[in-house]
Amino acid sequence: MKITLVAIGKTSEKYIAEGFDNYTKRLSRYCRFDFKVLPELKNTKSMPVELQLQKEGDMILAEMVNHQECILLDEHGKLYTSVEFAGLIEKRMNSGQRDMAFFIGGPYGFDERVKAACHGKLSVSPMTFSHQLIRLIFAEQFYRAFTIIKGEPYHNP
């Protein structure tokens, strides 16, 4: 199975990039994990939020057509425990699904058109994290999910 994480903008914090790279290397044992960065918008200080969401939405919608299932990481999405998330991934793998993409929006979230076009929304936590930090947290949860699926000792119930 190929899993793609799509995010707006490069990872600017070194510690986040290093942690993310660590988990993506670990994930290579279990699946094809790709990370795609969509370019961050320029000159946004005077740009209305609605216009930023629209422009980011255009890029996200163009990327969504490349994937079989598109899930948004959104604060209003469904909450899963780590075991439930592993079950979701395992169910998709067992059904023969070849591709899943998860999307991290910019600092203001997602345009309404993107929300309407996605196949689902997932919340990582009721707490709010930066769109940079969520990359690391989500990569760790993917790694944890695969260790749960394989019955490996990384996850302690």
Indicate the overall shape. globular
By DSSP, the count of extended strands is 5
The first-to-last residue Cα distance is 25 Å
How many helices in DSSP terms?
5
Segments where pLDDT lies below 50 for 5+ residues? none
Q: Provide the gyration radius in Å.
A: 15 Å
Oligomeric form: single chain
Structural class: alpha/beta
Mean pLDDT: 94
Biggest sheet: strands, sense, closure?
A: 5 strands, parallel
The percent range for strand residues is 15-25%
**H/E element sequence:** EHEHEHEHEH
Share of residues in helices? 40-55%
Question: Major sheet: order of its strands?
Answer: 2-1-4-3-5
Topology:
Layout: E1 2-8, H1 14-27, E2 32-38, H2 49-64, E3 70-79, H3 82-94, E4 99-104, H4 112-117, E5 120-123, H5 133-149
Parallel strand pairs: 1-2, 1-4, 3-4, 3-5
What does this structure look like?
This protein is α/β, with parallel strands linked by helices. The protein contains 5 helices and 5 strands; from the N terminus they run βαβαβαβαβα. The chain has helices at 14-27, 49-64, 82-94, 112-117, 133-149, and strands spanning 2-8, 32-38, 70-79, 99-104, 120-123. It has a 5-stranded parallel β-sheet with strand order 2-1-4-3-5. Helix 3 links the parallel strand 3 and strand 4. Helix 3 packs across helix 5 (133-149). The protein is globular.
